[in-house]
Fold:
Amino acid sequence: MLAQFRREIREWIRRTAHDGEWERSLLAANMICPGWPPAHGGSGLSPAEVFVFEEECAKACVPLIHRGVGEHLVGPAILQHGTADQKARFLPRIISGADRYCRAYSEPDHGSDLASATTHGARTGDDLVIHGHKTWVAGAAEANMLCLLCETGGEVCLVLVPMTGEIQIRPTPAMTGSPEFHEVFLHGARVPRTHVIGGVTGSWPPAMTAANPSGLAAANAKFEAEFWELVREARKTGRADDPGVRERLAWAYSRIALIRAHTMRLVTAMSAGENTVALQATERLLTTEFRRHFGEIAIDIAGPATTVQPDEHSTTWQTLFLSSRAATIDPHTSELRRTAIAEEILHLPTSE
Structure:
């Protein structure tokens, strides 16, 4: 059945992608958030079908129109835990692109210990008035909505907060020199309590909603594109015939194939409704470890000149190398992922 779907979606992309109205065509076909239910603007595709669709888009060199955090985190949380009014209000604005979300979970003194959030939402009538400080918020400069964790007196809530004048952002420069992350300061941001997904009491589960698997095929396609670009770099620098370089490139190529095979296993299991906690940990471990090692290979092949930053912008390979340093700690460390694999797949005993 998946092979038949692949043929059909490939033909649909061929007919549709080059008419100059690609995003409008996706909207009309309910393919912006294709994994969402048809009743809420999606196409009801399974995770495996979403993966195939994205893979065929990559092969056809047409852009994927993603809604970011809104698509893969906020939307699924609303679909699973939201009220009918919340679904009617928030989901169409995610699909249309009217609302662009960023996720604000981490805090300066607690990192990713989400249960220890100190950002506070004071209940004032039918509103929450929120004060707090969030860190490592990606995409804050482009967003108009925050997906925020705050405590309301013993309960940790997931709140959707418009980025109004009571919210300030400050860039946190990365090693690459670009402001990939921001700090977010909330000085009395007021939102209706109807913006709390799951209600003011007991809304911790929405924050733990499994993310939609969108973007996996795009990531695989990016790995492959970067690999062939590095092969061209090796030829340009005269290192393509070096046995050591060839061995490392062969390792990278085989690892990309392994990641794709495992990703297909993951989305197939998700489509069947299986518990995929360990498979997701394995997928993230494979991709992040690969990313880190590939950055090291790239900087070695490109040569020592790549380590020099000639101006305010890093070179392609330097940026890849520096950004890959964070891969094995963001948002969880490789050690935590290995623990999940040990417990869920290998069933190793845990220490008391």
